[in-house]
Amino acid sequence: MNEIDQLILELYQAEAPVAPSSEAIWRSVERLTGRSETGKAWRRPLPRRLAIAFVLALAGALALALFPTHRHSPSGAIPESASAAELLRVLADRGSPLPDVPRGSFLYSGGTRIILGGGTNAKGQNFNAFYRQDWELWVGRDGSVRSRTVYERKPISFPTERDRRRAKHYTEHVWGPADETTHSLRAYRAIFGMTPGALRRLPADPRALTRRLLVAGRSNSDERVSHDPLQMASMLLRAPIRPAIRVAMLRALATLPHVRRLPDETLAGAPVVAVAMRVRIHAFVGPGYLYYDHVLLLDPDTGQLIGARLVGRPRSGRPSAARDATCRWTWRQAVVPTIRSRPSAS
Amino acid sequence: MVENGTAVNNPTDAELLASSAEDTEAFRAFFERHYRAVWSFLAWRFGDSEADDACAETFATAFKDRERYDDGIADARPWLLGIAVNHARHHARRERKRLGRLACTLSSAPAGPSVDLDPRGRLAAGLLALDKRDREPLLLLALADLSYTQIGEALGIPEGTVRSRINRARRQLKEAIQE
User: Fold this and answer.
1) Which range has highest mean pLDDT (A94-103, B99-108, B138-147)?
2) Which chain B residue's Cα is nearest to A36?
3) How many structural domains are present in chain A?
4) Quick check: B9 pLDDT over 50?
5) pTM of the predicted model as reported, rounded to 2 decimal places
6) How far is A61 from chain B (nearest CA, A)?
7) B65 touching A, CB under 8 A?
8) Do A37 and A102 belong together in one domain?
9) Looking at the predicted complex, does its ipTM rise above 0.85?
């Protein structure tokens, strides 16, 4: 996308309005079309065959209503023809079995990730590279956060050939502490965009929640972090939010424009469903931006987030092998009693 | 696509519009498929309170004119956005007011001597100054992510004209930002 086009998009999206439910607008469409000449088409007497089909459909709907066990079972497949919004609403209906985090307990999230980081070589040249890390996060309702990261110092791949060449003269990347515990509300806010109290008070109304997601994303002071709503949602799902908010988050994502569905896939042998959004992130080195598809991988039975990835995309033209390098996360979650404990292996 | 051995149809926009003469649910499906993109395009330009009405008007017009839709074009989004742009004329005053406000707000943001003013303020002013024939194609490209061909379909102008208008608009905006 041209730089001017990108600035225009930012300018117009500055206030980030959230689409209302389709029902309200559809009622207006019906009212407007009913008033126009086209109203005839809506009210045209049904042909006989259509009427029969309608009666049969109505009977089917009644049967489904009377025998709810015959409805879409919680573990049933979601048709691949369903849109992202439809998919997210189905997952919201299925709900998340994760219990609320009691006071004094912690929400544990952990997994493996491949991230894009930066380094400086012996000649003082900057480069981007992908690193593998094992990560764990414990978050309490009182604002306590423990973050533990075990990382491989050697990059596993590079976005471009230039990065690879520059990394040959790489000395050592300066990493932060591998195991850090903080009770600082400022640190908490820097991670989640709000205080623990504000997290608990998040609204369960999807439209209001979407507004909060977008505001929280913009209030993050680090320009180089992706502020897309999917990123904010995945961050908040790692916090001890109320179970109702976990469900509302899926409904909130269903209202966002530009969220699309990807083909179903498997993650560590388990089936997952995927939704994606195109996002733009400041390049870690040098001016300009990197473009990615931010993909969330969700458990089709519970709607729980179990993985994510950022897939590099060329700004224009044909896909490039170098840019198609991918950041990936996988994780599992559980409520644990202490900031030092982990969930059982099962 | 196949689910449980049963084929699941995913009709094209043209098929939905064609069957909407007899089947109101077909037009509802068409609406559900596109309303969010149309609403967002309108909301970004005119604000969400105006977008609700303008979006409904767009789909009402689409319903009225659905028999004129070229069924050789599978994706109806350019056609819908073309209708939305026509409706946008009624809301042009609202958009000018909105851009004017953004131009003032962003340009007067606190800035130290070493910090440049927010370029978006000058961009908003530049957009206000653009000829609307140049502005519309550019906004369809930047906000709705339409291709040059699709913009031509939406506005009923040749692709070459789309390109030249967009280039002219970009050039003028670049100059406005760099002033």
Assistant:
1) B138-147
2) B64
3) 2
4) yes
5) 0.47
6) 15
7) no
8) no
9) no
Question: B5 vs A313, which has greater pLDDT?
Answer: A313
Q: Which of residues 244-263 of A touch B (CB under 8 A)?
A: 255, 257-258
3-state secondary structure chain A: CCHHHHHHHHHHHHHCCCCCCHHHHHHHHHHHHHHCCCHHHHHCCCCHHHHHHHHHHHHHHHHHHHCHHHCCCCCCCCCCCCCHHHHHHHHHHHCCCCCCCCCCCEEEEEEEEEEEEEEEECCCCEEEEEEEEEEEEEEECCCCEEEEEEECCCCCECCCHHHHHHHCCECCCCCCCCEEEECCHHHHHHHHCCCHHHHHCCCCCHHHHHHHHHHHHHHCCCCCCCCCHHHHHHHHCCCCCCHHHHHHHHHHHHCCCCCEEEEEEEECCEEEEEEEEEEEEECCCCCCEEEEEEEEEECCCCCCEEEEEEEEECCCCCCCCCCCCEEEEEEEEEEECCCCCCCCCC
pLDDT digits (tens, 9 = 90+) for A326-341: 667 777 888 899 999 9
> Residue B52 and residue A25: Cβ atoms within 8 Å?
yes
**Which residues of chain A lie closer than 8 angstroms to B175, CB-CB?**
none
Structurally, what CATH architecture does the domain formed by B9-108+117-178 represent? Up-down Bundle (1.20)
Q: Hey, where are the domains in chain B?
A: 9-108+117-178
Q: Does the distance separating the beta carbons of B24 and A42 come in below 8 Å? A: yes
- Provide, as residue numbers in chain A, all residues whose Cβ is less than 8 Å from the Cβ of B55: 25
